[in-house]
Design a protein that fits this description.
The chain is mostly beta strands. 12% of the residues lie in helices and 46% in strands. It has a five-stranded antiparallel β-sheet, with no helix packed on it. Strands 10, 11, 12, 13 and 14 form a five-stranded antiparallel β-sheet that branches. The N terminus and C terminus are likely disordered.
């Protein structure tokens, strides 16, 4: 300690003899050298790099339970926009449950089958729940019970009861296929009541645990309409589409029966904690005089309140149907594409035969549409609503290095990255497109998959409970291999870095200026 103290005193004496400006320049010079060394030795991500790592594998010790208990099989992983993952797993020596986390070291059980109890007003407890929805480190869990359905929320060991279908009248049921849930814990769920035989009565409920409220029901007054105008029997909900955004706004469509036998109209409403307001009336949408819009559906709502939705129109000439995609934002409603439009392809264009899927706009105002063309190709068109360009096309000639024979569902994030499902030859698979437009194969059934160094297995099947892409560039899927093993895998594209050479030049320039200041200081002292 004495020697070290002498060294420190010696250092202080030397520095105290220097001019103040030189001392500052000296330390800045050392700091910049350290920064340059860090830049030089720190690996820089290669543009377009796609990394793969297992989050959990069958045979691994399951975190948070007995040390002797291992994962036997893994199912239905989900990932939210923040990169949080939840998956279902069976264990070798106990029923299993759900685990959540962002990395293998972060995994913890959220709920265990037959162990996590969730009391309801009717005295029921959680025994064998169904697959959950997941957002922002929270899960909304559904459970079928004798005579009804239950909803509850969970978050790392805590649970809250939300709803029991039996409390809405007997018989009643909750339609699990149309339940929505977000990271704030807000839930939207439809209840079907069957008090009148063959005339189910639909109610739409919104809120959080302990404070759900009715926002719409068949026969109820339609918001923003004259008194006596009521919601008809066709209320279209989000379902697979995220109609509930992160700001607690929820979109639903319905037909409205006008009073005094004045006919019907179709519209879309957005509900938040303050109000329910009509934002789209089918009468606003123009597909030509020879088409009548008969339904609005498929609402996709982003966190800015911008919405993509579809319309179905019937021809007044031959009775055929046409589908179109629209965007609602602060500027009103604008068309994106409709069946029969031409979309650009390599060296030309082709008309849309079928619109397959679409996404909500991301934070940059861009969306993705997948479609089948009259020339037989399928593809993804990505961009702003008024300027969609092909991101991927099936067949030979667009991306010859990527063998994609058909394209179906796509997801995007705020980094302008895309994940899509499709086929490669006769086999199903999934691909990743980074923000530079470069495609990367993630996996294809019957293909070799590198689990780890020296561990290559043949992929049999894959799945996920939602095709999603987090805003930090992650996607998740469970892969099952021909040897019976399975695992949940994280796929991540590294965002495009600043060029390593420029990162090196910047500290070099600062060091050069620091040297000049040191020389100037020394020459004047």
């Amino acid at each position: 300690m004495l020697v070290n103290d002498k060294k420190s005193r010696f250092g202080r004496q030397v520095l105290s003899a220097m001019p103040t400006q030189l001392v500052i320049a000296h330390w800045r010079y050392c700091w910049l050298i350290a920064l340059m060394f860090y830049v030089c030795v720190t690996p820089t991500a290669v543009d377009g790099q796609l990394t793969v790592r297992p989050l959990a594998l069958s045979g691994d010790v399951a975190p948070g339970v007995s040390p002797q208990d291992r994962f036997q099989a893994i199912f239905a992983p989900v990932i939210d926009k923040q990169g949080n993952v939840l998956f279902d797993a069976q264990l070798e020596n106990s029923p299993g449950g759900w685990w959540q986390g962002r990395t293998p070291s972060d995994l913890t059980p959220m709920a265990l089958w037959n162990q996590t109890n969730v009391a309801t007003p009717s005295g029921d407890h959680l025994v064998a729940p169904g697959f959950p929805l997941f957002a922002g480190d929270r899960a909304l869990v559904t459970e079928e019970i004798v005579g009804g359905q239950l909803l509850w929320t969970g978050q790392r060991g805590t649970t809250q009861f939300v709803a029991d279908s039996r409390s809405f009248g007997d018989p009643s049921s909750i339609d699990f296929s149309a339940v929505e849930f977000n990271a704030n814990g807000t839930v939207v769920f439809p209840v079907m009541q069957f008090q009148i035989p063959n005339e189910p009565h639909l109610q739409l409920w919104y809120g959080r645990s302990g404070e759900v409220t009715l926002i719409a029901e068949v026969g109820g007054q339609a918001a923003d309409y004259e008194m006596g105008a009521v919601y008809g029997s066709h209320i279209f909900l989000g379902g697979l589409f995220p109609a509930l955004n992160g700001q607690d706004q929820y979109a639903f469509a319905a037909n409205v029966i006008l009073p005094n036998n004045a006919g019907e109209e179709t519209g879309i409403w957005i509900h938040d904690s303050q109000e329910t307001r009509l934002v789209v009336n089918a009468n606003q949408l123009d597909l030509g005089a020879d088409h009548n819009i008969i339904a609005l559906a498929g609402m996709y709502l982003n966190d800015l309140g911008e919405m993509v939705f579809s319309s179905l129109a019937e021809s007044t000439i031959d009775g055929t149907f046409k589908r179109a995609i629209w965007v609602y934002d602060t500027n009103g409603v604008t068309p994106v594409v409709e069946q029969g439009d031409e979309l650009p392809i390599k060296n030309g264009s082709s008309r849309i035969e079928h619109i397959l899927s679409y996404t909500a706009p991301n934070a940059n105002g861009k969306l993705a549409v997948t479609a089948e063309l009259e020339n037989g190709q399928t593809g993804i068109w990505f961009g702003t609503p008024d300027n969609l360009r092909p991101a991927m096309l099936s067949g030979v000639g667009f991306r010859p290095e990527v063998a994609v024979t058909s394209i179906s569902l796509a997801a995007i994030n705020d980094l302008d990255q895309i994940v899509f499902s499709g086929t490669g030859g006769p086999n199903l698979g999934q691909w990743f497109i980074d923000q530079t437009g470069t495609p990367h194969p993630m996996f294809v059934t019957d293909g070799a998959f590198h689990v780890a160094d020296g561990d290559v297995r043949t992929l049999a099947t894959f799945g996920h409970f939602n095709q999603n892409l987090s805003n930090d560039g992650k996607a998740v899927a469970v892969l099952t291999f021909t040897d019976g093993s399975s695992g949940a895998f994280l796929f991540q594209a590294i965002p495009e870095p600043t060029t390593g050479f420029l990162s090196f030049l910047a500290p070099c320039a600062w060091i050069r200026r620091a040297r000049q200041r040191v020389r100037t200081t020394m020459s004047t002292t």
